[in-house]
Amino acid sequence: MLVYGTSGLCSCPQSKVLSLRIFSSFELGVSTRRQVLKQVDKELAKGDDRAALSLVKDLQGKPGGLRCFGTARQVPQRHYTLAELKLNGIEAALLLSPIDATLGSIERNLQIAAVSGGLAAWNAFKFSPQQILYFSLVLLFLWTWDSVAFNGGVSSLVLDTIGHNFSQKYHNRVIQHEAGHFLVAYLVGILPKGYTLTSLDALRKQGSLNVQAGTAFVDLEFLEEVNAGKVSATMLNRFSCIALAGVATEYLLYGYAEGGLTDINQLDTLLKSLGFTQKKVDSQVRWSLLSTVLILRRHGAARSKVAEAMSIGKSVGTCIDIIESNINDTDI
Q1: C-alpha to C-alpha distance for 70 and 54, rounded to whole angstroms
Q2: 133-146 pLDDT, tens digit each
Q3: Which of 22, 51, 93, 306 shows the greatest Cβ crowding within 10 Å of its Cβ?
Q4: Is 275 exposed, middle or buried (0-12, 13-18, 19+ CB in 10 A)?
Q5: Shared-domain flag, residues 191 and 258
Q6: Is the C-alpha dihedral spanning 220, 201, 173, 330 positive or negative?
Q7: Do 287 and 226 belong to one domain?
């Protein structure tokens, strides 16, 4: 009808009215979606995750609503070999054992600067060996205190802050990593409820040095299954894909992953806590990795737009609207 009404082939008044009504209905759907998403943001801000999830599910799958929520296409679940992953352009070793070379380099440079500064101070102020020993003991105490009391939170905060301010590559990588988590979570049917891009931002929002930057999710259904003592395959598959979405995003953009080691370790711990053998863990990880990479390849444009929005602090609702606006019906 829209094509017919806008083609100019029919000039009868009835045709124009019909076309106008269809267009207005579409606009009304988008307007309603954005109004609902604003309410979702309000519920999340209040901490009412259940209400926010209910709003999203009420609009799920409706025309002009949330068409994409929970619609991700995944590969058939079976055991995939490393050779099959390679055939799909995935070198598992390049993303399942991430090493943060950027922060590692920053940490080494800080250590070199500290040693150099100590030697310079020794020569300038003529510190005695005993004073140097005292200074070393104080630094060792502070490092130990941070490791025990804050699980290394102070050190991580310092390194992360320096990384974001002095390495544009690191800053961009973190944003893309979290955008991957956000997009995949939404598409597999798990509602994101917030995100932080820096450890300093996480400290400001949550008041804890033990919380690193990352994306949080409304995991009520998952926790209910865990408390009931049985996690369904569907729920496990969703969270497996979410866990690997960050490293998969980095791999697709840069050819390897640096961040995300914590994500992988948490997934490994979860699977083993459910009684998975190592062979079954490997099978679950490979299936999840293949599914996640294919989702990200299919919706790369949407992920890029979400990353742009996250970089300027847009709300969860706004990021969801961006996803809905940048995925066509044919891609669902």
Answers
A1: 14
A2: 666 666 666 566 65
A3: 306
A4: exposed
A5: yes
A6: positive
A7: yes
The total domain count for the chain is 3
Same domain, 96 and 107: no
Query: Residue 260 CB: number of other CB atoms within 10 A?
Result: 24
Domain extent for 23: 2-59
- 94 or 135, higher pLDDT: 94
Do 112 and 124 lie in a common domain?
A: yes
The total number of residues written for the chain in this structure: 332
159 vs 175: CA distance, rounded Å? 16
pLDDT, tens digit (0-9, with 9 covering 90-100), for 258-301 = 999 999 999 999 999 999 999 999 999 999 999 999 999 999 99
Q: Whose CA is closest to 145, among 213, 203, 209?
A: 209
* Residue 146 C-alpha from the chain's centroid: 27
Residue 70 three-state SS: coil
Three-state secondary structure call for residue 192:
strand
Predicted TM-score (pTM) of the model is 0.83
With respect to residue 73, please indicate whether it lies within any of the assigned structural domains: no
Q: Is residue 138 part of a domain?
A: yes
Q: Give the SS3 label for residue 90.
A: coil
Whether the CB-CB separation of 295 and 241 falls below 8 Å is answered with: yes
